[in-house]
């Protein structure tokens, strides 16, 4: 089913003390939010944020998950470990994981299957680069990422569209452009896994969130920088 989901991605930010300060300010501001509100935080913050969020409408997620139950995978964190400290959601295939850490469509698929097997709710990221966008390859790239990432996956997943070309390049994706591309993603994904919620991850912030969320195909947002500021993030989660 399609549903409104706003997920914050803290990336490599926030010590435990900073996380506690954030939650103290943010929780009262989002108490009446009607969307599913998720904070995807560094591993070291998961349990602290989970405990602080108990009794609230905020859920906790991780930023990656291993594709194996356990074993010789130095630096990886298993789904069981994530669940044990309070994670309910997990980001998989983020553009930064693909660009900086060698993530591929195949490893994304493995992580997706493992997350689902263990009862985590995956936020599966797809998106094209500036070179691919300007080369007219957007639909080809997205179709390949979706089909390979969801190969053998039948369960409900959340998809996040990250136009890598619109992040830190000076280029801007208008709400209409984002809506059109997410509509294409939906047409591909629906054939594979049925109806899904699709989030927009292209620098959504307090100023542009409502215009983006008013679009017919955009179900929510995967928020980076703005999720580090309680006042800004609360504006987004409280959008109509």
How does this structure look, described?
The structure is a single chain. The chain is α/β, with parallel strands linked by helices and 240 residues long. The chain has one domain (5-237): TIM Barrel, CATH 3.20.20.70. Helix content is 41%, strand content 15%. It has ten helices and eight strands. The protein has helices at residues 16-29, 43-53, 79-84, 95-100, 105-117, 130-134, 138-149, 175-193, 209-213, 230-237, and strands spanning 5-9, 36-40, 58-62, 89-92, 121-126, 158-161, 197-200, 220-223. The protein has an eight-stranded parallel β-barrel with strand order 1-2-3-4-5-6-7-8, surrounded by five helices. Strand 1 (5-9), helix 1 and strand 2 form a beta-alpha-beta unit. Helix 1 (16-29) runs parallel beside helix 2 (43-53), helix 1 (16-29) crosses helix 10 and helix 5 crosses helix 7. The longest helix has 19 residues, at 175-193. It is globular, with a radius of gyration of 17 Å. The relative contact order is 0.16. The model has no long low-confidence stretch (mean pLDDT 95).
Question: Which features does this protein show?
Answer:
240 residues, alpha/beta, TIM Barrel, 10 helices, 8 strands, 15% strand, globular
- List SSEs in N-to-C order: EHEHEHEHHEHHEHEHEH
CATH architecture: Alpha-Beta Barrel
The CATH topology is TIM Barrel
**Residue-averaged pLDDT:** 95
CATH first level: which class?
Alpha Beta
What amount of the residues lies in strands? 15-25%
Radius of gyration: 17 Å
Helical percentage: 40-55%
The neighbouring-strand order within the major sheet is: 1-2-3-4-5-6-7-8
Total number of strands? 8
Q: How many domain regions?
A: 1
CATH superfamily assignment?
Aldolase class I
Low-confidence stretches: none
| Class computed from helices, strands and strand pairing | alpha/beta
| Sheet with most strands | 8 strands, parallel, barrel
N- to C-terminal separation? 19 Å
List the total number of helices: 10
Shape: globular
């Amino acid at each position: 089913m399609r549903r409104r989901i706003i997920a914050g991605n803290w990336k490599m930010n926030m010590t435990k003390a900073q996380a506690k300060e954030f939650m103290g300010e943010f929780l009262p501001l989002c108490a009446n939010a009607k969307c599913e509100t998720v904070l995807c935080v560094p591993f070291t913050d998961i349990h602290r944020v989970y405990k602080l969020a108990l009794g609230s409408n905020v859920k906790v997620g991780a930023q990656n998950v291993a594709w194996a139950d356990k074993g010789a995978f130095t630096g990886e964190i298993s789904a069981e470990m994530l669940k044990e400290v309070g994670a309910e959601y997990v980001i998989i295939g983020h553009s930064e994981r693909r660009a900086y850490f060698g993530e591929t469509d195949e490893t994304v698929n493995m992580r997706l299957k493992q997350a689902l097997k263990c009862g985590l709710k995956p936020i599966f990221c797809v998106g094209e680069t500036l070179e691919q966008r300007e080369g007219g390859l957007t639909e080809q790239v997205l179709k390949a990422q979706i089909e390979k990432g969801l190969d053998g996956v039948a369960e409900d997943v959340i998809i996040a569209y990250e136009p890598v070309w619109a992040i830190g390049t000076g280029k801007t994706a208008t709400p209409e452009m984002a809506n059109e591309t997410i509509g294409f993603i939906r047409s591909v994904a629906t054939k594979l896994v049925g109806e899904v919620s699709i989030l927009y991850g292209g620098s959504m912030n307090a100023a542009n969130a409502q215009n983006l969320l008013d679009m017919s195909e955009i179900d929510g947002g995967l928020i980076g920088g703005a999720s580090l500021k309680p006042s800004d993030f609360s504006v987004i989660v409280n959008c109509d």
